[in-house]
Amino acid sequence: MTPKAQLDFSGIRILDGGMATELERRGCDISGVLWSAHVLDASPQTIGEVHLDYLRAGADCISTASYQVSAKGYAELGRGREDAARALRQSVAIAEEAKAQFASESNRPVWIAASLGPYGAALHNGAEYHGNYQIGFDELVEFHAERLYVLAKTGADLVAFETVPSLEEAKAILAALGRYPDLRAWLSLTCKDTLHLAHGEQIGECAALLDGAPQIAAIGVNCTSPHLIRWLIAEIQTVTAKPVIVYPNSGEIWDPAARTWQGRTEIQHFGALAQRWFIAGAQAVGGCCRTGPAHIRAIREAFEASERLPA
């Protein structure tokens, strides 16, 4: 992985959008316990195509299709730890291939973030949206450290810890990162309102913890309503000068009873919100669930428009 001394996070302004959303739109089955990671086996070339579409839409950083990969998840399918490790390495290799292909089309620098979901994602029961886990702290540290051990030997630029719902899990992630001092990461939180993480802690308390962690390159918010983002940026900025990154959902709402998304997303409106987030001080903006290349293109346009505004 890229040594932390060589990672210039200031070059990352536009993130990509939802991986699972795009894979499903292209006909991939993501209904199993591994969610979008199933496609690493079934159709790895489709993952590469999604990466390329996001780069062509304007993303500076692509996240690997490894959010759901863990030894715990693979064990449920009767597969071993090496299968999970192989999937992590494969997800980075696919992103590297897409980056190399894009280099023949553009000289824009590209970063690769190795995506890691929270422990709740491995439970595949929605626990990442409340963070109430039946697991001890030391076990939580081991869960994250096992995947870092594999990713530390890949060509990814940094690790993206995503949809982290609680202060406790953020502490466990920092403990796991501490075993690999050359790694850098961003840590992105999921929030239920303008002040609180999904589990209930104040986002400012968690951001203050991350501010003191030298391996954390940026503090983020993802898988959260776009209408909360501007205030969450402000809350984070009260306790840290580290880069703030945001990549919310499209604005649609998941109905767990009907197992479907409700509402609609207006890409032009999402782009207008993104411009406000840049003006509010976000270093990088992207999208999470239900966003696609069109959203990223709108964000790129919003960023360029914000750069033209008078100081």
Question: CA-to-CA gap between the ends?
Answer: 37 Å
> Could you name the CATH class?
Alpha Beta
- The CATH H-level homologous superfamily: Homocysteine-binding-like domain
Largest sheet: 7 strands, parallel
Number of strands: 9
Q: How is this structure best summarized?
A:
By secondary structure, this protein is of the alpha/beta class. It has helices at residues 19-25, 38-42, 44-57, 71-76, 81-103, 119-123, 137-151, 167-177, 203-211, 229-237, 267-280, 293-308, and strands spanning 61-63, 111-116, 158-164, 185-189, 216-222, 244-247, 253-255, 260-262, 284-285. Helix 3 packs across helix 5 and helix 11 crosses helix 12 (293-308).
Helices and strands in order, then pairings?
Elements: H1 19-25, H2 38-42, H3 44-57, E1 61-63, H4 71-76, H5 81-103, E2 111-116, H6 119-123, H7 137-151, E3 158-164, H8 167-177, E4 185-189, H9 203-211, E5 216-222, H10 229-237, E6 244-247, E7 253-255, E8 260-262, H11 267-280, E9 284-285, H12 293-308
Parallel strand pairs: 1-2, 2-3, 3-4, 4-5, 5-6, 6-9
Antiparallel strand pairs: 7-8
Helix pairs in contact: 3-5, 3-12, 7-8, 8-9, 11-12
